[in-house]
Write a structure and sequence with these properties.
The protein has one domain. 74% of the residues lie in helices and 0% in strands.
């Protein structure tokens, strides 16, 4: 089980670090568009669409990494006064909900992406770049999130009160 957890964590760590580099072109393109629009009065037709696509990649593919690094929003006000046992149960339920949600996104996202690839769907804009690969980010990102949810569930189970293997 530890090997599975290490592999899943390593995959999401690698993907998260890789896609974080997409912030550089995101900022550069946004700055370029601002300068072109407001300084030279010559807005581009492609910058906004490209930034949407880059941001979609960051958001969809970064979910697993965010879960790995405990970056998702939590409502600590609710758990602050709970007993350790209640906190453990809530910590175990959270990744289970993630597994269910990510599973639904994998199934339905795959169907939507496949259909979009089939018709070579494009963004409804003047530039009209391909849209289908952006839709593929949904099931791929959901798979990464699902795997990380599985990893977090395994970690939580091994840390169960009274479990001697959790050390």
């Amino acid at each position: 089980m530890r090997t599975i957890v290490k592999i899943i964590d390593a995959i999401n760590e690698w993907v998260g670090r890789l896609i974080s580099l997409l912030m550089i072109p995101l900022v550069v393109i946004a700055a370029y568009e601002v300068v072109m629009r407001y300084v030279f009065k010559k807005p581009t037709i492609w910058a906004w669409d490209l930034n949407i696509q880059i941001f979609a990649a960051i958001v969809m593919l970064g979910g697993g990494y965010t879960l790995l690094t405990d970056g998702h929003v939590k409502v600590d006000v609710i758990t602050a006064k709970c007993s350790e046992k209640t906190k453990y149960i809530l910590d175990l339920l959270a990744p289970i909900f993630i597994l269910i949600s990510a599973g639904v996104l994998i199934v339905y996202g795959w169907d939507l992406a496949w259909m979009s690839f089939g018709i070579r769907e494009t963004v409804a804009s003047v530039w009209a770049p391909p849209y289908y690969y952006m839709k593929a980010f949904v099931p791929v990102g959901a798979l990464l999130l699902f795997l990380q949810g599985l990893s977090e569930t395994i970690k939580c189970i091994t840390k169960a009160p009274g479990n001697s293997t959790g050390k």
